[in-house]
Amino acid sequence: MKKYIWVFLIAMVPLIEIRGAIPYAVIWGLPLIPSIIVAVIGNMVPVPIIFLFARKVLEWGKDKPVIDKFFTWCLEKGEKGGRKLEAKAGKGLYWALFLFVGIPLPGTGAWTGMLAASILNMDFKKSTLAALGGVLLAGAIMLTASLLGVGVYQLTQ
Length: 157
Description:
This protein is mainly α. The protein has one domain (2-155). 77% of the residues lie in helices and 0% in strands. The chain has helices at 2-12, 17-27, 32-44, 46-61, 68-89, 93-102, 110-119, 124-147, 152-155. Helix 1 (2-12) packs parallel to helix 3 (32-44), helix 2 packs parallel to helix 8 (124-147) and helix 4 crosses helix 5. The longest helix has 24 residues, at 124-147.
């Protein structure tokens, strides 16, 4: 049970998420189906919180001493990147979010994807479903790579 808790917690960590939790589950020899379920749930727990509060927190902090520059930068960078993605993706914006979350590369994932969705004021339900699909895709990719013996480090280089 302790190892499943670790898989759950690893999946919740920004930037690591399911792409780190699945390889650990494989290394620890945990049964695959329960490990995937635990990792997906762990990765998805922060999603609604990020979507609902990230933009509000960034807007709150953009005029506070010490954090103002960083928070303003996050908002501007997110809006600029989001608008560019929106222009390129058009009606396929939710598919783009799905792929962004699903391709296990550094800087992508549910945390970043939902932050972008929040900044772009995308639909909560559609964004959450796109993120869930992306998490499942990333999980499948990482499971396959882990079972084939490809290290996490090798996948990100």
